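Figure caption, in words: inputs first, then the predicted bound structure.
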Amino acid sequence: MEKKNTPVPQTATLTYNGRSIELPVVVGTEGEVGFDVSNLYAKTGHLVYDPGMANTAVCKSDISYIDGENGILRYRGIPIEKLSATHDFIETAMLLMNGKLPTVEERLNFGMLLTENANIHESMKHHFDSFPPKAHPMAILSAMVNSLFCYDRQFQRMIDKDPTLAIDTAAANLMSKVRTLAAYSHRAAQGLPYMFPDPSLRYCSNFLHMMFSEPYRQYIPENEIDEALNLILTLHADHEQNCSTTTVRIVGSAQANLYASVSAGICALWGPLHGGANVAVIDMLESIHRGGLSPQECIEKAKDKNEPFRLMGFGHRVYKKYDPRARLLKTCCDRVFKRLKVQDPLLDIARKLEELALKDSYFIERKLYPNVDFYSGIILRAIGIPTNMFTVIFAIGRMPGWIAQWKELYNDQNSRLTRPRQIYIGAPLTQYQPLTKRK
Ligand code: CMC
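Bound structure (carboxymethyl coenzyme *A present):
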C-alpha cells in the first residue's frame, strides 16, 4: 500500500488489446489507492471481474476504518481499544450514527428516546404467535424488524419532508426495539411470557432482564455481565463493508426503507461464514469436548483440502494479523471467567486450539488468526445466552453500523442503484426445438 502523505499518480493506465485508457485514481485518508473503473464499460465495453468483491471498493465511507495488515479498527477515527475503554455501546452507536461522540445532554436525551421507544405495539406481539415453536430467533428478528416499518408512521410521512428527523427518529426506534424484539424472539421460541422493558435499567441489563426475568422474579445481571455484553456490542458495532453491511447498502440503493434494508442485513449476518460463525465455533468446541476429535485432529482436519471443514472463528478476509476485536474479547473472557468464578471446558479447548494453530505453518503462511467470533461465543455462553441467540446479539451490536451506513448512502448525492454485471458462461445461441406433441 502507498504510504500516507506520499504523492501518488492521479491516473492509472489500463492497456488491453493495443488500446490504453486512463483510469482516475481515488485516494483514501490513510493512503489506500483505488482505480476508478466506473466508466470502464462505457468507454471500452469491458467489465472488471472480482468474485466476492474482494478487491472492489463499493463506496467511499467515513464511518469505520480497518487496516488488516496491522490489526487496526477505528470508528470515526477513534481506535476501538480507546473507545471501548471509555465509552459504552450507546455512546459508540451515537458516534457511528451521528459522526461525533455525544455531549452529556445529547446522551441523556438519546437515553430518554430509547426508553420511550422500548415497547413494541401490542398488536406486534401477535406476530410472534404465528411462528412455530423453536423457530430460529434470527428468522423471527429479521421478519419483525421489517414489520416495524408498518408501525412507524412518522418515518413514512416525514422521509421526504424532513429526512434528518425521520431517519434519526427511526434510528432511535430501531436501536431500542431491536433489543426488545431480540429478547421476545427468544421468549416466543421458548413459549415464555413477554417481559416489559424496565426503564430503570441500562441498555444491556434491560435486554438481559427481558430475556431472563420471570413474572415474579426479576433478573438483574451483575455489573461484570452487563459490562461484558456492552463490550461485545461495542466491538461489533461497525466493520466497514462486510457481507451484511454491503447487503444493507445494496438494498438501500434501490431506495428501500431503512427497516427493510437492515432486515436484509440480519439475514446476511445469519450465515455461518459471517455472523453465524460464533455458533459454529461453539458447535465445533462442543464436538471436540464430546470426544469427536482431539484439538490436534481438529487442526489436521481444517488443513486437509479433501475435507470441507474449517477451523471456525479463524481467518478473516481483511485481517492478516490478530483481529483487534478478538484480542479485547480474549482479555474480557479471562476477566469474566475469573470474576464469575465459572469454569468451562470449552474455554480450555479454545485456548489449546489457538495455541496449536498459531504455531502451525498452515495457519501462519495463510495468516489465519482468531477472529471476533472465536471468543465471543464462549463469553456469551458464560453469561447464560443460549447458543441460537449468539448471532442475534451480533445483530443488536451491528445495528448502529447498519443505520450509519444506510444514512451515509441516503445522504450521498452520487449514490447509484447497485446493479453489478456478470460474465456469461452459459450456452451460446441455441436453436429451440419445440417438443413434439404426443399422439
Ligand atoms: N480454517 C482452515 N483454512 C482456512 C480457514 C479456516 N478457518 N480460513 C481460510 N482458510 C484457508 C482456505 O482454505 C484457503 O486456503 P488455500 O489458499 O490453500 O486454498 C486460504 O486459507 C484463504 O481462504 P479464503 O477462503 O480464500 O479466504 P476468504 O477471505 O475468502 O475467507 C473467511 C474468509 C472468514 C470466510 C474464512 O477465513 C473462513 O471461512 N473462516 C471460518 C469462518 C469464520 O470464522 N467466519 C467469521 C469471520 S469474522 C466475523 C465477521 O466479521 O463476519
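The radius of gyration is 24 Å.
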